[in-house]
Amino acid sequence: MKCPSCENPLTSQSTAGVKVMTCRRGCGGLWFDGREIQKLQERLPGAGAALLPVERPAGVYIFRDIQHPCPRCVSTLLYRHCFSKTFQYEVDQCARCGGFWVDPGTLPEIASETSPEAR
Fold first, then answer.
1. Rounded CA gap, 34 and 18, in Å?
2. What is the residue range of 40's domain?
3. What's the total number of domains in the chain?
4. Residue 101 covered by a domain
5. pTM here?
6. Residue 48 and residue 52: Cα distance in Å, rounded?
7. Which pLDDT tens digit goes with each residue over 92-115?
């Protein structure tokens, strides 16, 4: 699969029993299939910490103002929306497969929102 933001190859990674595709050495974004992002939220606080240190070379630009193709479905465009009604963290989601694209820097915000202390 290719990164929807910078077209770099995505690398499979597993943390806390959750499979994630990571754009390593590219933009640093994360792809969660279907319910994987919800599974990560249900884990203990800090379960996604291993996903945060992504190497991002200088000069890699993220195009946030355009719709990107779903890396799984390829022909379906992702739509941007707020991850939650309470907080304004934006994610891109595929209407066809239900996967989520999370821009670099957004995962810590989502994790802090969904931690037991924030509930």
1. 11
2. 11-47+55-118
3. 1
4. yes
5. 0.77
6. 7
7. 899 999 999 988 766 655 555 544
